[in-house]
From TrEMBL:
Residues 351-461 form the MHD2 domain. This is MHD1 domain-containing protein. It comes from Hibiscus sabdariffa. InterPro entries: Munc13_1, Munc13_dom-2, PATROL1_C, unc-13_homologue. Residues 83-226 form the MHD1 domain. Residues 1-20 are annotated as: Disordered.
Length: 521
């Protein structure tokens, strides 16, 4: 016993021979002493003490436990040495307990008193705590990497052949390395600690996804609806807008430049990046299974990984949709605003038709098609189509007093919308006709209001307003319907707006008498 205590007092560093750490070798030596005690001395000493073997192993357990406690108190990070020591300590403890139990079978309490004196080493608990600290350190480093690198990310679609950001490749490489290192740890509790690692990495990936879409708000470019007014008479305002258009800088009509992190090419790169990450997450659990090196149930680990990355996968899906919307809004209401929101139908309809807008939009659609991944191309183009259709309605229903329409303008407006839908159909090479029909239905239902004579339109407005408001309203005292933005042929605010942009005296008198609407903003 004295010799063993001398050995333990020196157990603070690794064995010079580079084999096992000295504390692990000490555990092996203590185990040999315990079995030698059990086989050689305990049978003799049992004449004087019924639980001689139990007393011996309890003493050995206590001596090694004191040294182990001191050793562990100086350990603050995970290392192969500490894992080896804890593994051998756990094995030693089980062997000593087994000897004590076998020696106490015939005792009155079945050896309970002896076992109570053997305070557990809690090697698995210490291992678990160190591995959790290791996981936290790994994920914290990954978070720092994501934050630092994405602040510098240029989102250049030319950076990779697949036109996504290199940072996505790098972050997934780091994730793979973290899983590989985890599964290579010489522990037996991979399944128990896997959720901690997977959850930590999932949080890092969500941070990446969030930063990949940051600064590209979907509503940033959508114009604010002006207050309701009566339309102005034909004026020189249209001429002013057309002169301004001629002097408009070409850069506004472009698709962005290399220094614009939210230019159209960069937006497409962001979309491609999230799509790439989404596809990689789908197979992440299968890839990480190749790192499994112990006998833990592979099914349990696979299920754990699949569940862990559902949040990241959902964030990718949401991010792709948000970036599609932001890209569409930018193209329609920023890059082409001089031809669309600031140009279409300003002044005379016949002199401010949709062709110039369609010509430039066609160039943008071509650029998007060449840049965005083919698996998400339809989603992006569909969103551009949706925004252009919604924007077309905004021009007609909320384009400000510089726009005014007569019954004779209806055919040109309807024809222009037909040109717009044809652009996306592209003789069958563009979007499916069912998608175009789905998103064009609102415009097609509302356009007939622009060919309805003013008296009928006023009567329709009275009827739909009375149907939608309280019984106290009358045809002579109509409440002003709120702007919901949910345009429809029987929605009161929609019908009212068609009247507001109707360029005739009957509509002007009705609006002035009923609501005292001004002609100017």
């Amino acid at each position: 016993m004295e010799k063993e205590k001398e050995k333990s007092s020196k157990a603070s560093s690794k064995d010079d021979r580079g084999e096992l750490p000295l504390m692990a070798r000490l555990a092996e030596e203590v185990s040999k002493v315990a079995f030698r005690e059990k086989e050689t001395f305990s049978p003799i000493l049992k004449r004087w003490h019924q639980l001689a073997a139990g007393v011996a192993v309890t003493t050995l357990h206590s001596c090694y436990g004191n040294e182990l406690k001191q050793y562990v108190s100086g350990v603050h990070e995970l290392s192969p040495d500490i894992l080896q020591v804890l593994k051998h300590a756990d094995r030693l403890e089980k062997e000593l307990v087994q000897i004590a139990v076998e020696n106490s079978v015939d005792s009155e309490d079945g050896g309970k008193s002896i076992i109570r004196e053997m305070h557990p080493y809690e090697a698995e608990s210490v291992t678990s705590g160190l591995v959790k600290s290791w996981i936290t350190e790994r994920t914290d480093r990954l978070k720092e990497w994501v934050s630092r690198n994405l602040q510098q990310e240029r989102w250049d679609p030319k950076a990779t052949r697949e036109r996504f950001a290199l940072s996505a490749v790098e972050v997934l490489r780091i994730v793979d390395e973290a899983f590989e290192a985890f599964f290579l740890l010489p522990i037996s509790i991979h399944a128990a600690l896997l959720p901690d690692l997977a959850t930590g990495i999932d949080t890092c990936l969500q941070q990446y996804i969030s930063m990949a879409k940051s600064g590209c708000g979907t509503q940033t470019f959508v114009p604010t609806l002006p207050p309701l007014t009566r339309c102005s008479r034909r004026s020189k305002l249209g001429t002013v807008f057309r002169k301004r258009e001629k002097g408009h800088k070409k850069t506004q009509g472009g698709t962005g430049n290399d220094n614009d992190s939210c230019g159209t090419p960069q937006m497409c790169c962001r979309i491609n990046t999230l799509h790439y990450m989404q596809t990689q997450l789908d197979g992440l659990s299968k890839r990480e299974m190749t790192h499994l090196t112990n006998s833990v149930s592979t099914q349990d680990i696979s299920n754990g990984l699949e569940k862990a990355f559902k949040l990241s996968a959902a964030a990718c899906e949401e991010g792709i949709q948000q970036l599609c919307e932001a890209t569409a809004n930018k193209v329609i209401f920023h890059d082409l605003t001089h031809l669309f929101w600031d140009g279409l139908y300003i002044g005379e309809v016949s002199s401010s038709r949709i062709e110039p807008f369609l010509e430039e939009l066609d160039h943008h659609l071509e650029d998007i098609s060449l840049t965005v991944h083919d698996k998400v191309r339809t989603r992006v183009i569909t969103q551009v189509m949706k925004v252009s259709f919604d924007g077309f309605l905004l021009v007609l229903l909320a384009g400000g007093p510089a726009r005014a329409f007569t019954l004779q303008d209806f055919e040109m407006i309807e024809e222009d919308f037909g040109f717009l839908t044809d652009l996306f159909w592209s003789n069958g090479d563009g979007l499916p006709s069912e998608l175009i029909d789905k998103f064009s239905i609102a415009v097609k239902l509302i356009l007939p209001l622009f060919q309805t004579d003013t008296e009928s339109l006023i009567e329709k407005f009275r009827n739909v307003t009375l149907e939608s408001c309280s019984s106290s309203a009358t045809k002579s005292k109509l409440p002003l319907p709120p702007t919901t933005g949910q345009w429809g042929p029987v929605e009161p605010n929609t019908v009212l707006r068609v009247l507001c942009y109707r360029n005739d005296e009957i509509a002007a008198k009705f609006l002035k008498k009923t609501y005292h609407l001004p002609k100017k903003l």
